[in-house]
Amino acid sequence: MARILIPIDGSETALRAVQWVIEQIRAGVNHQVSLLNVQPEILSGHARAYFTKTDLDAFMAEQAQEQLAPAQKLLTEANIPYESSFERGHAPMVIADHAKKAGFDQIVMGTRGLNRVSGLLLGSVATGVLHLVDIPVTLIK
């Protein structure tokens, strides 16, 4: 059974990645599915001056759950068991580290998320992940 990691950022391409995995499972491929949402660190001193760490943590958890919910719904409706989690940090690094530490066999992810400006300036999350992992990465457009 292959352990598949699907990074979820709330984008349509991330949901297409989930749908692709669902289709693979329906076709008879045996996968264990895990969803991962990565929330960016809030580095601004202004935000930290007005909100407690507890408030920021709760906000991040709420944002992560909102972004994970549509993917969780697709998997639940398809009767496919899954795990889901969220972490904070720079998305490509967090995804790569998570995949390595947990021993995933493959990453399936969308090619473009919600943040186009970041993609233009820093390179896409998918490209970053490709450079950081040594396991297969399937990109869904």
Automatic annotation (TrEMBL):
Protein name, entry field? Universal stress family protein
**Protein family per UniProt:** Belongs to the universal stress protein A family.
What organism, scientifically named, is this protein from?
A: Lautropia mirabilis ATCC 51599
* Family matches, as InterPro entries: Rossmann-like_a/b/a_fold, Universal_stress_UspA, UspA
Q: Where is the UspA domain?
A: 3-141
Xref: SUPFAM superfamilies: Adenine nucleotide alpha hydrolases-like (SSF52402)
Record PANTHER family:
ADENINE NUCLEOTIDE ALPHA HYDROLASES-LIKE SUPERFAMILY PROTEIN, USPA DOMAIN-CONTAINING PROTEIN
Pfam families given in the database record: Usp
